[in-house]
């Protein structure tokens, strides 16, 4: 749908809140903030919502196992997990609480499962259990593992339906989603920000600006005058490919390998709501946006999957899709790269809120990120 917010002849339009980016996070924020008492606009440079990271991922509802306790990733993932299942139930969004087995193919990997279990419990994840070989075989007879970590809160979701539901909420509450509108300039003023749109050379004033631009979020922060290198806001592109399985495997749950790559969670077996199966993603950095899949990577996927499942032949794998995550270039002293969700008054930008580095588990965390942003908006006014 083409939606345009109203213009006023011979004067600059003023709005209360502008959200840059109509991925799942921007839409969740828009739904949380839209209200008939104020004008909320969501700007999207593409011709439809969710054209980048939000529609090119595993569509997994994560439980919150992998992140340091009290980190934003942990807090928003655990909270978002609960919120998403509730939202899907109320708004007829497709999801399924399948549960996940994180398998240890070798005995020496079991301590890592125990470490992840302890960290997940410290983050508030419930129901985590270490299963021995016999218990794993009882749940998944065709999976080969010495042990596995069972996560009952992990599931899958139809991300397109989720974003559709958020979009409806925005519009039902009087907000606007404006597509084909790339932000070309952000000019701080005493009472807000003048935003310039590249298409049509249009300019308008917004009292509050929320940067949910995903892969472009560091660029938007830079447009506002932030030195993104000095404050460690610069992103790198982390690409992940998926290969679809041409046959259905006798597997009921999501199957993850024990993590061994700091760029991602490793290649895992994902089941979608229609019962289709795929393997992915791998993880490697790239310099520019490129969604092509390298067919030669099929061997890597096949070899890793065979660590825990014997029923996959290399001919069963066909290229499916690829996604790119907005990963921060640098992390903390331990290398951990947390979400950045911050109101920037201390940088001379009151009412400017950045959401940067919202990679996995951003889909799961989206409603909780929206809560956090709404709190920042309220406290900044």
Helices and strands in order:
Blueprint: E1 14-20, H1 24-33, E2 40-43, E3 60-61, H2 72-91, E4 95-96, E5 100-104, H3 110-122, E6 129-132, H4 133-139, E7 147-151, E8 155-157, H5 159-172, E9 176-178, E10 183-189, E11 192-197, E12 202-211, H6 217-223, E13 235-245, E14 254-257, E15 268-271, E16 277-280, E17 284-286, H7 298-305, E18 317-328, E19 340-344, E20 349-356, H8 362-380
Parallel strand pairs: 1-2, 1-12, 2-9, 5-14, 12-20
Antiparallel strand pairs: 3-8, 4-8, 5-7, 6-7, 10-11, 11-12, 13-16, 13-17, 13-18, 15-16, 19-20
Helicity range: 25-40%
Rounded average pLDDT: 93
The CATH superfamily of the largest domain bears the name: FAD/NAD(P)-binding domain
Tell me the overall shape. elongated
Count of DSSP strands: 20
Number of helices: 8
Q: Helix/strand-derived class?
A: alpha+beta
How would you characterize the largest beta sheet? 8 strands, mixed
Q: Over all CA atoms, what is the radius of gyration?
A: 21 Å
Alpha carbon gap, first and last residue: 32 Å
Q: Unreliable runs, pLDDT <50, ≥5 residues?
A: 1-10
* Strand content range: 25-35%
Q: Classify the fold: give the CATH topology of the largest domain.
A: FAD/NAD(P)-binding domain
- What is the architecture of the largest domain at the second tier of CATH? 3-Layer(bba) Sandwich
Order of SSEs:
EHEEHEEHEHEEHEEEEHEEEEEHEEEH
Number of domains: 2
- For this structure, what is the CATH class of the largest domain? Alpha Beta
